[in-house]
Amino acid sequence: DICGVDHPSRKRRFEVVHNLLSTRYNSRIRVQTSADEVTRISPVVSPFPSAGRWEREVWDMSGVSSINHPDLRRISTDHGFEGHPLRKDFPLSGYVEVRYD
């Protein structure tokens, strides 16, 4: 499980928490990392392949990207969506006109 938290008052405003489970070694690992809007975090996809989907969701919703992620594209929002909805500076009012085929 991976989650991203936005703290706009901090210098490194994003906090990413990885809760990893290895059934092979019967162990749990919690990794907590912080990043700013430019810094990219290290991915955990190679040792934990199932983390790829969760890293995509953190990028899609919070805007925190992973270095050399194999498939970094939107997963929770529409293809043409602009912005990251879980950021504290995301606008709460207004509308965006969307046209579907």
Automatic annotation (TrEMBL):
<protein>
    <submittedName>
        <fullName>NADH dehydrogenase subunit 9</fullName>
    </submittedName>
</protein>
<feature type="domain" description="NADH:ubiquinone oxidoreductase 30kDa subunit">
    <location>
        <begin position="1"/>
        <end position="95"/>
    </location>
</feature>
<keyword id="KW-0496">Mitochondrion</keyword>
<dbReference type="InterPro" id="IPR001268">
    <property type="entry name" value="NADH_UbQ_OxRdtase_30kDa_su"/>
</dbReference>
<dbReference type="InterPro" id="IPR037232">
    <property type="entry name" value="NADH_quin_OxRdtase_su_C/D-like"/>
</dbReference>
<dbReference type="Pfam" id="PF00329">
    <property type="entry name" value="Complex1_30kDa"/>
</dbReference>
<comment type="similarity">
    <text>Belongs to the complex I 30 kDa subunit family.</text>
</comment>
<dbReference type="GO" id="GO:0008137">
    <property type="term" value="F:NADH dehydrogenase (ubiquinone) activity"/>
</dbReference>
